[in-house]
Amino acid sequence: MDFQNIERVLVLAPHPDDGEFSSGGTIKRFTNLGLEVHYAAFSPCIKSLPEGTPEDALWKELASAAKILGIPSANIITFNYPVRDFPEHRQAILEDLIKLKRKLNPDLVLLPNSQDIHQDHHTIYEEGLRAFKHSRMLGYELPWNNLNFTNNCHIRLEREHIQAKMEALKCYASQNFRNYMDPEYFFGLAKTRGIQVNANYAEAFELIRWII
After folding, report:
1. What one-character DSSP code corresponds to residue 49?
2. Is there a domain that residue 204 lies in?
3. Is the dihedral of CA 87, 92, 97, 98 positive or negative?
4. Sign of torsion, CA 174 177 179 182?
5. pLDDT by position in tens, the chain (length 212)
6. Residue 3 domain flag
7. Beta strands in the chain (DSSP E)
8. Contact indicator for 49, 85 with CB cutoff of 8 Å
9. How many CB atoms lie within 10 A of CB 177?
10. Which pLDDT does position 4 carry in this prediction?
11. Pick from 191, 142, 137, 138: which is nearest to 162 by CA?
12. What distance in Å separates the CA atoms of residue 193 and residue 34, rounded to the nearest whole number?
């Protein structure tokens, strides 16, 4: 896979940290290459924040993380859907995705993979598939949401990309209670995915659609 014909990338993140957890190294590689990366996050996840955390905490953390990964603040798009209730707002989400398609016409879309069992993630996958059916699409990996995952596409990375990913994840102080918020875990996963394709590091994706 090469990125010769890819200029504009859209990351669909049901929740503000999903893009970084799944694809932070890839995003950093893309921005280093000069690709135009846009990041759409669909919920401030107010109900999931630790008690006493400001309601806009994740938006502020996303802004800081995106800066580290090279995404301009103007390229961050946010929506206010209630966390864990995306299936109830399916049609509105689809309409917002279609608006993004018309506005950005991305060459590549990163979105949750088809086997992600989180209800919000699966809604973004299903409606993203409808909205961007004429675009290249890769389904990203979040192992804690998968019983199975088809990792048939790997993007080679270097350690600097994974280090940038970890620096971006440090911005999410509100998520420090997550047991997977661990540098050893993410470096180990990136090393494992890299070994699968004879690279130093990699992030794996489900190849949903590729257009040549």
Report:
1. S
2. yes
3. positive
4. positive
5. 567 789 999 999 999 999 999 999 999 999 999 999 999 999 999 999 999 999 999 999 999 999 999 999 999 999 999 999 999 999 999 999 999 999 999 999 999 999 999 999 999 999 999 999 999 999 999 999 999 999 999 999 999 999 999 999 999 999 999 999 999 999 999 999 999 999 999 999 999 999 99
6. no
7. 8-13, 36-41, 76-78, 108-112, 136-140, 153-157, 201-209
8. no
9. 7
10. 76
11. 191
12. 24
Q: Burial, 20: exposed, middle or buried (Cβ in 10 Å; 0-12, 13-18, 19+)?
A: buried
The Cβ of residue 117 has, within 10 Å, a number of other Cβ atoms equal to: 13
Distance of alpha carbon 98 from alpha carbon 85, whole angstroms: 20
- Residue 1 in any domain: the answer is no
Q: pTM of the full predicted structure?
A: 0.97
Measured distance CA(198)–CA(51) in Å, rounded: 44
CATH of the domain at 58: 3.40.50.10320
Helices 159-170 and 57-69, packing angle to 10 deg: 160
Per the structure, how many domains does the chain have? Answer: 1
Residue 178: give the domain boundaries.
8-209
Does residue 172 form part of some domain? yes
Inter-residue contact 205 to 155 (CB < 8 Å): yes
End-to-end CA distance of the chain: 10
Distance separating alpha carbons of residues 59 and 68, to the nearest angstrom: 15
Q: What is the DSSP-derived secondary structure letter of residue 50? A: P
